[in-house]
Predict the structure.
Amino acid sequence: MTSKVRFGLAASVLVTIAVLNRLIAPVDEPFFGGNGIWQDQNFDVSTTVIEAEWIEAAPIVLAENFEPVSVSNIGDRFENGIGFERELVEMYGVDEVDRTANPLTTELKVEDFENAIKFESDTHCTRPDGSKYCDLFISWDESLTPTGSEDNFITVDFGDYQFGIIEQQLFESRSN
Amino acid sequence: MIGLIHELAILLLFSASATVAAHLLGVRNIWLALSLGTLIGVTTRTITFSIANLFDLLQFSAWLFIGLALVVLVIGFIRAKQKQLLGRSMLLSTSAALLAVVSTRIIGLSPIGHGDSRWIVTIAEHMQNGGDMGVLNGRTSIKRGFAYPQILALGPEGEFLSSFTPYVFAALAAGSVWLILELTKSMKTRTVLLAGVPILLAAITATVPLRSVFYINGHTLTALGMLIGAGWVVIAIKDKQLTQLGLASIMLGFFVTATSRPEGIAMVALIALPLLAQKWILRKQQILVISSATVGLSMWLSVYNSYIINETTLPWYVFSAIFIGLGLLPTLKIFDFLRHRLVPLAFAAMVLVITVSQILFSDALSKGNASQFANLIQGEGLWGYLAIGIVLVALIIGINGMSDSYKTLLTVSLLLILGTFIAKMIDGGQFGNPTLGRIGWSDSLNRMWLHSFAIVVVTIWLGMSERLAGRKQ
């Protein structure tokens, strides 16, 4: 085979691949628009990761809204607890995290806190079916504990792989 | 608007000062000035950040970098020779910077959302705040890179330098142009351009190469370091000598690669093999090439208070000294008989590792094998059918009558492909049996192909050019 024939064959293969890439192969958006100067621009790191409902954002949500803030009953994500990334806890300044106790179980339902939910995302957990993901919400009541104040949160297991990190006074008010 | 002005000022300063630094280093090619300049800027930021961390002055690290960049820009420009050429280089790099800022801050193009990207921007914000780097001692942050978030941290307060990612892509594209032009000097430009059309067409019709323009991760920065390193390795082997500029470029490429991704040091080791195997390479050059990567990784592990150092219970400086020292073992004269056979030995070792792993861990790896088949052959990794096309084209091009440069680039590409598989198996094997990833573009192995993609594209482009020209270069 001469050099030119080899080139012709190789070029044909690549052009065919290019056509197939557009016609048959799975494709997806390479990037998005919508963050332009005339639009509602957002480059703030904390806001973007919270708005994206990032699976690791829980410590950031607490640290961004309360000072000082503590959270208990996180447990061990590889047993009965949930993920609450140590490095983010220290980077963003959640003042106290108690992982020794498992999340509290309760008769209450997720719906009992619906009007106070401020953040929802997946969270890391360990499920018997092999999945590593559970549902998580964070809730507090502005009238009980306004943002910016000192606050304590507890982690609650609602069953069916649903967890909540709930402001303590709110949880106690609904439990009574 | 303040954010836009901030980004514009920082990226223009970065690009202009880095280009001046590249010119002072001896670069007289505008494409190389952009790509190598970017490596100089990133290396400078990494070193100044690490020094600031050492003296608990992290809150001033950005000012340290900015001050240094201004000094280099002003003094360098005054002292520079061939100012007209420097002006053209600066025009290219600042135009790329301007375009990058316009794309993210004015038009508002945004990357695909991904968990790794969010980790990276939070680490960047921590760096920007001058936060205690000692808290980054877990297993997650270390996987998100060191050099890349440091540059993102130069963004406006509470934000990240959004335009840096497309700027790095521009530098990668410029590096590819430089390398192909350098290796096809004696060919007609028209031949080279025509030969490049099919491979570029195939590349831009797949999603992942375009996605990498804005995707927030250290992949394209790693790719840039690897491309420049590999490019100079090929040139040095072709010319049978490693020039001062070539050595400096390889060192910068290896330093940035080793500080951008955890597997970076393994990748640069593979790129260095054909060079280190040469009989003419000076021992001093071997030491500098290897140390550029090991020093970089040591800095990263030390600044991040890495669990890897902590588990040894050694102070960071003792660990670093041992690590850098061990890296120099292959340069000892008694190992010369092995050094000269590094390439076939590495191929044999990697094929053996992959084969044995596939036999011993067949159950654990079967899911990963199926995933890679889906990602690379069936297109689920959003690479289109590029993998099939590239393999076929490499076979059609063949090696008979091809130049030594093509053969060296092909060797490097093959080493990197095998090495990437092994790097993924090791990464997955940290917590049990080795794995080879999952279906989907976000699988880490699927994204790791970005590191060597530019090298593979240049290899195919060179091969196509030589076949079209019908003669060896």
Q: What stands out?
A: Chain B has 21 helices and no strands.
